Amino acid sequence: MLNAAVRNVRGLNRRDHQIVIRKLAINSMLHFIGLLETRVTLPNAARVQNGILPRWNWFSDYNSAGNRIWLAWDDDFLDIAIMDIGVQFVHCRIFIRSSHIYVLVTVSYGANDMGSRRELWQALCTISGSIGDDPWLVGGDFNAVRDLSEVCSTSGDIRLAMNELNDCILNTGLIALPMRGERFTWHNCSDDGRSLWKRLDRLLANDKWIERWPDVFYDCLTPRTSDHSPLVLRGDCRRPPQRKMKGDLSANFKLAGEFLEISQRLLQEDRHEPLLLHLEHCCRLVFLKAVKIEHVMLQQRAKIQWMKGGDQCSRVFFRKVAIRRANKRIFQISDEAGVDM
């Protein structure tokens, strides 16, 4: 899977901010990172980028207002082509060399005001129409929450903004990935006692991404040098291939039957030999296990054929299943005071 992270860094001119990003890339073994709100001017960009990850490739769009998004990747592992650019997003196609697959990634940085954010929602809906069957990941700072549980403290009337974000997620066919770690991704760092926490940052994916990597989730790490938490993609589910049985099951049944016949013949010669009794017992266990395996395999084949022929494998059905799985996964448990156990 793509080893990726996104983060609103709230400025990269300071050396300590640069060191934090470098450590994040090294400690999480990243191959791709999206950085938001760098606040670095064009004359200083190359110096800052080389100070963080000098061997990586970098993309920054200084033609768009504010230069809001940087991309960085290790070209020993990835090939990247920029597909589309907007003031609030960068959309790219990534070739993962280790698995020889293409994925699509959109790094987003939503505007502060609700009216301008509508341009991002429209852009994501437009992009979704060109995705096809490719795995698609969308991540970044959306500057909006999905429901009131993602806000701690007073934040005014945000229901319309919430509805617009949820409509965008629904219309694009994206699925909210499970999150582990910090509950809120942003804190206003207020010194006047009016602290405010929100979940403004998130990772979303389409059904094709989750179908390929069913165990995908992301870690929301401690913010440290920024008011936003880094989001690190996790959950590579590349399972080891199952070992193939030598020969087909019919040959295994035949072998087990011959073994049972021989043991019974020996028992007729000496019915009180403990070793032969043990031999027969082991043989019967092998035979019963083979029967059970055959039964399970026949069930699986029938299920696969039914799913292929029916409508249960539609993308709408799979998306509902993926959402239900994501919502039911438990990563941590807290006590009544909200302290992680």
Structural descriptors:
single chain, 341 residues, alpha+beta, Deoxyribonuclease I, Chain A, 2 domains, seven-stranded mixed β-sheet, six-stranded mixed β-sheet, 8 helices, globular
Question: What does this entry look like structurally?
Answer:
InterPro entries: Endo/exonu/phosph_ase_sf (IPR036691). It comes from Sesamum angolense. This is Endonuclease/exonuclease/phosphatase domain-containing protein. With 341 residues, the chain is of the alpha+beta class. It folds into 2 domains: 4-234, Deoxyribonuclease I, Chain A (4-Layer Sandwich), CATH 3.60.10; 249-310. Helix content is 38%, strand content 22%. It contains 8 helices and 16 strands. The strands form 3 sheets. It has a 7-stranded mixed β-sheet, with no helix packed on it. It has a 6-stranded mixed β-sheet with strand order 5-6-7-8-14-10. A 3-stranded antiparallel β-sheet has the order 9-13-12, with no helix packed on it. Helix 3 (114-128) links the parallel strand 7 (101-109) and strand 8 (136-141). Helix 3 (114-128) runs parallel beside helix 4 (159-172) and helix 6 (249-269) packs antiparallel against helix 7. 30% of the residues are buried. Mean pLDDT is 81; it is low at 237-249 and 308-312.
Set out the fold topology.
Blueprint: E1 4-8, H1 15-27, E2 32-36, H2 42-52, E3 57-60, E4 69-73, E5 78-86, E6 89-96, E7 101-109, H3 114-128, E8 136-141, E9 151-152, H4 159-172, E10 175-176, E11 179-181, E12 186-187, E13 197-198, E14 201-205, H5 207-212, E15 217-220, E16 231-234, H6 249-269, H7 274-309, H8 315-328
Parallel strand pairs: 1-2, 7-8, 11-15
Antiparallel strand pairs: 1-16, 2-4, 3-4, 5-6, 6-7, 8-14, 9-13, 10-14, 12-13, 15-16
Helix pairs in contact: 3-4, 6-7
